[in-house]
Amino acid sequence: MGCFQSKTAHHQSPEGCSPPDTKPDSANGDQSEQDQNQIPRFKEYGLNELRKATNGFSSDYIVSESGDKAPNVVYRGKLENNRLVAVKRFSKQSWPDAQQFVAEAAGVGKVRHKRLVNLIGCCAEGDERLLVSEYMPNDTLSKHLFHWDKLPLPWEMRVRVAYYIAQALDHCSTENRKIYHDLNAYRVLFDEDGDPHLSSFGLMKNSRDGKSYSTNLAYTPPEFLRTGRVIPESVIYSYGTVLLDLLSGKHIPPSHALDLIRGKNVLLLMDSSLEGQYANDDATKLVELASKCLQSEARDRPDTEFLLTAVSPLQKQKEVASHVLMGLTKSTVVLPTMLSPLGKACARIDLTAVHDILLKTGYKDEEGAENELSFQEWTQQVQEMLNTKKFGDIAFRDKDFKSAIDYYSKLVVMMSVPSATVFARRALSYLMIEQAELALRDAMQAQVCIPEWPTAFYLQALALSKLGMETDAQDMLNDGATFEAKRHNSWRN
């Protein structure tokens, strides 16, 4: 149970189409509709809301694989309703016209599908232009193909990626969103179930001038090199480059891959780590599809419906869940059966409710603490300590959290016996001014003072949740509920 070591050891300063749907673990149509209904309506967010969600656009929250070197940086964020999101921040002056930006984003926001990372909002304030989408926690296709840690992406999962992305593109086409900008392995992301989704960010240009391709020119469609324009057939070409990535497990320029295909050296194209996982006929069919997509003349490339028809028969393990194929541990969040009002407030990150509860609780969980102070020898030092505590409590009551932190910090130094309540109050004060790491430290110190104090665990859960460490936060809620139940039973007996 010792959070001080075990729970935070790794803490860091923070979808139509004619073929049938094959989502393995949610094939039920009702479930799919239910999932879609959970996606919030597209809305405009305030800049302050998104700044708060990303901890001031902290570098610790950047999820772009190239970090802050990317021209448009993507951050992980958490909204006040506890929803995790991805926030794309465009470079300055990419979209000078705020109304045009919002109109473009709203258009993309109407395109909803279970195979897309759906766009749920935008922001255009001052020079800032931001997009807000669902958050995908299990990295990009690029990471799983080119930078894997334990196991290479298996063949069946690669086929599933090809099919799911074809579904997303086909849906976009039917919704008259036939242009997808710069389709590549970075634009495919995996959700908590390990299912691949196509980022909705690619449905919108990176800037008003339409400069759409940021990848190596060797991978861009020939017509873009000739005219600087993207057409619907350009998306099919880029899909072909993704097929090459899936087949080879590495970046292969289309010109080189086509030379291998024309020379019938298909095996030289295949990822050696996939040996024994696929039938040669299936690999050949996927290679042939890539070849069709990569035709130099746009009119010779297939459409999205052809992609679906070609890839669907290659799936041989439709019933196996994606996270199983990928070897991912699927975390199922189960809330404790018993949470006190304080635990519930921390679980929903309701800082105002937490503040009210701590005020009402006072120091009563520290038996004898206040009496101990009153019986000490009456010295000037003790009087100063009592006054410091009094001023700290008044500031905390009046929500002057910076002053409360100052007074409580002085009190911590002065007291010979540390107070868990003081650490708890200072922890919440730190949370109120967006300093979650310091709040976590104080909540841990409160646990040291009273090892089985539910309040200390609930405040740690709150701080961890603010830092985006959901699994650890859930552990803390569970621990707090356990000690709550233990205390309740002891009182009853």
Features:
single chain; 493 residues; alpha/beta; Phosphorylase Kinase, domain 1; Transferase(Phosphotransferase), domain 1; Serine Threonine Protein Phosphatase 5, Tetratricopeptide repeat; 3 domains; 5-stranded mixed β-sheet; 3-stranded mixed β-sheet; 22 helices; 8 strands; 49% helix; 8% strand; elongated; disordered N terminus; transferase; myristate; nucleotide-binding; TPR-like_helical_dom_sf; TPR_BSK1_C
Tell me about this structure.
This protein has 493 residues and is of the alpha/beta class. The protein folds into 3 domains: 39-135, Phosphorylase Kinase, domain 1 (2-Layer Sandwich); 138-329, Transferase(Phosphotransferase), domain 1; 341-492, Tetratricopeptide repeat domain (Serine Threonine Protein Phosphatase 5, Tetratricopeptide repeat). The chain has 22 helices and 8 strands. Helix 6 runs antiparallel to helix 12 and helix 14 (341-347) runs antiparallel to helix 15. It is elongated and about 95 Å long. Residues 1-37, 332-337 and 368-377 have low confidence and may be disordered.
CATH architecture of the largest domain: Orthogonal Bundle
Distance between the termini: 24 Å
Helix residue percentage: 40-55%
CATH topology of the largest domain: Transferase(Phosphotransferase), domain 1
Q: Radius of gyration from the CA trace?
A: 27 Å
CATH class of the largest domain: Mainly Alpha
> Helical element count?
22
Query: What are the low-pLDDT stretches, counting only 5+ consecutive residues below 50?
Result: 1-37, 332-337, 368-377
The number of domains is 3
Full CATH superfamily name of the largest domain: Transferase(Phosphotransferase) domain 1
The geometry reads as elongated
